[in-house]
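User: Teach me something about this protein's shape.
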Amino acid sequence: IRPGSAVKKNKKQAPSPKGPRAAPGKKAELKKPDLKDFIDNKDYAGAIALLEFERRARETRGNSLMWLAFAYFHNGEYRKAMGLYDELMGKPGYDQALHVYKACCLYALCEYESAREEAEKGPYADGLKVRILFHVAHKLNDEQEMMKYHEHSPPEGLGDSIEDQLCLAAIQYLRAHYQDATDVYKRLLLENRDNLALNVYVAMCYYKLDYYDVGLEILQVYLAQEPTSVTAVNLKACSHYQLYNGKAAEAELKVLQNASTSGDIYQDHDLLRHNLVVFRNGENALQVLPHLMETIPEAKLNLILYYLRREEVTDAFALTKDLEPTVPREYILKGVVYAALGQQTGSLEHLKMAQQLFQLVGASASECDTIPGRQSMASCFMLLRQYEDVLVYLKSIKAYFPNDDDFNWNYGLACAAAHDYREAIEALLMVQSERYRSEFTYITWLARCYIMNNEPQRAWETYSRVETSNDTVNLLQLIANDCYKMGHFYFACKAFDVLERIDPDPEFSDGKRGAAIGVFQKVVAKQESTDKLQEVVRLLRNTNNPQTEYMVNRVIRKWAQENRVQLP
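Assistant: First, the predicted structure itself:
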């Protein structure tokens, strides 16, 4: 059971009684539905309707309240089941096992301390008490208690029964020990071929190990028999999301919608509502995810991702600061949030924490050779400004991200910072997101790469396409200074001229004059065309400065007359 939720939640199914049809013209004889048929078909809503009817009609059935509690529990109505168990425990000489059944309800309602107290009152009997206490200890992070049940022999510990081994495998799965869980499930599957649900558990483990194709192949064995299983179809949809995209994943859920009799399959199942938000790239996230955070652990992580994508870093941090990571993806997500907040606020403390979180993942033996592990080490070195090391890790996984804007952004900036400008241009131009391409950081780095790669014309064109803003002056300064440094004096002169008109700062005037001399020098050396000199002289005449007048009239014009170059 998944605490706080149920695979079937108040799902109403229309009973479909089987039997011979009445002859035409004759009234069909109504036959009372059989409880066993409802239970065998997992139609717990139907079972509840039958048992409640019998209860109101005062019809006698052996253990009717127990059956009704059983149906309520499996239909996700834990408090109603618990109320019936309380009613039964109010009778003299009641079965002590009822305490354990009530503990299961409390566990499903996430009331773990109460579940522990209630389970302790029950007998060890068939091992259910040990299993529920083992899961409660996991939820309460009580390692000592977990080891007690793991190491002891029955009846006070886990044994070799299929139920106990399934319990152990479930804990291994929840603790992210997916390979250990897989080993248990595969062994059980070899011994119990007819237990088809084991194929689903093995497929879930392979999904967590990123073997999506293998998981789908194993899952198909179960789907062939149970094509409308919510759990199995949902797992198939998630695998398609990882392999393809959200649309492909959502298409897999149509089989459930078509088979549903309630009208809206997503309202009946918390897990499907949660995953639909993910498949639709965060649509309705604020309406769905906050209510599921206590029952579906991934809901909190996906809500953090939603805030990050919307650049609402403060909201993301509010959810992250109390998060105690237990698996690599949680360490990575916490690191991303701390890095984003550190960059936004200039907090070195948060950047240091992010760097340490990334290093923990990237340097761990289990993750160092995985794609997320290498991305983590690249992020760690990026924050340390060790760009050569960043590229070592990013180049090793580049083939897996041919059209990923985030990867191309990071790879492009790392190449630029490591002075590999040609590779940087190629990576940055592969970024497709208009939001990314309009960011000042992207524009300035692309302009710098063009200049350093001896393509100043493209840098100037980049500036020409930018709308005027406060950042425009900074971009012009970058173009002016970088072009001057690289000897692209014509474009440096143009940039300084615009800057001088915006702000008559003497530094801009001096830079403009220096760049003009550079253009003149290149024209004299026949490395630049004379039309560039003509345009520079035009720009110089915009400056009312004696030094500029002397330079134009006494130096440049004299050379132009001697070399028959016409000047404005």
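Now, about its shape. The chain is about 70% helix and 0% strand. Residues 1-22 have pLDDT under 50 and may be disordered. If you'd like, I can walk through any region in more detail.
User: That's plenty for now, thanks!
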